[in-house]
Batch of 2 targets.
Target 1
Amino acid sequence: MTGPGIEGGALVVEDFERVAPPLTDRTAAFWTSGADGLLRIARCQDCGRYLHPPRPVCSACQGRGVAFTPVSGRGTVWSWTVNRYGWVPSMPPPYLVADVELVEQPGLRLLTNLVDCPAAEVYVGLPVQVCFARAGEAYIPLFRPEAGNAQGRPEAGNAQGRPEAGNAQGRPEAGGGDQR
Ligand SMILES: [Zn+2]
């Protein structure tokens, strides 16, 4: 079912189903990388530049020796927002959408979701660590606050486990507003 190494905490079990991304020749290695708990990013073997989204030719040196390389999985929140709209029927809002910049290279960013983190605790520059959610054959990279900050994270199966939408800051809920 799952590869070795991911059971120890890198695999997130959610109470909804994510849409599986299409696996193409160019992207399959990225989407399935998390099977062993590691994030892999396409990297030019000639000049060392990471390339995301994956592409077959290096944008820096035009080298064609591009290979998926394990990275630390560590990064920081570069920008983020609370999505309150039901874009994906199987994925109930609200949830946190973020651009995470990996520590390996300035500008190396992944569009992702933040999990195990209330919106009130997110800030630009927040250190985060990769984790993965299964979707079909894919392991979708997600991010959560780095260890030390994750003790309070909700366990799988807790229906209330999704991040609250900024309640602590008094922002109005979509369609709500009768809490006073
Ligand atoms: Zn290169």
Target 2
Amino acid sequence: MLSQAAQKLGPAVELINADAHDASSHLPPASQDLVLCHFVLGFGDGGQLLEQAYRLLRPGGCLSLATTTRQSFSELYEGRFERFANWLGVQNSLDQLSNPIDHADCLQLLQQQDFDILADRDHRQPVCFESLRDVRGWAVDSGWVVNGEDKHIRLRVAGAWTLIGLAMVFLHPLFPVHATCEMSIVLAQKPVARSRRQSPPHSPSDPARETIV
Ligand SMILES: C[S@@+](CC[C@H](N)C(=O)[O-])C[C@H]1O[C@@H](n2cnc3c(N)ncnc32)[C@H](O)[C@@H]1O
């Protein structure tokens, strides 16, 4: 993927293949004007990822954050799907994700890291699951529900999918299922005047060069 990006972007952009939890060890502290963190929070330790962004930003630099919240697609594991989802252990798996509980929680996480909120949006995107295949695409293929550390859920999902396949004819009338994807979209700024911690000296970055971690 990085080689494709390198082909498209050319030599003006430096690409670094690294764990985002450790991003600040690859770049000088307080060196970046903008950090993008789009749909990554749920894959790791949210607090640590935001802290890395804070360290990399120069005072006055901005963080563009977009993340799904744990409210997303709750229609698929509540109500008529609740028992089935409980059996699958969906809630346990979701609890292992580190994306924010909701938009307010997202703003709080940023404020805890000493960011100022410049603009924010609690975006709710209606999504229609037309069939079990659509649900599988979200829950299994994309890895969202089986993203946690709980390995047993993978086995349960595989077993459940076999059962669902058999019951498909009976379940089909349940569709379409209308659900909502809740996304927290925030532009946050590292303050210029105050500092939560001793900031290292500012190292100016070459404006002609951008870095993607
Ligand atoms: C849902 S995709 C979002 C991709 C892109 N940011 C976007 O908005 O389209 C999540 C990405 O996070 C990457 N990722 C997951 N854990 C990571 C980590 N610890 N460090 C760096 N990248 C990670 C995955 O490889 C994947 O490309």
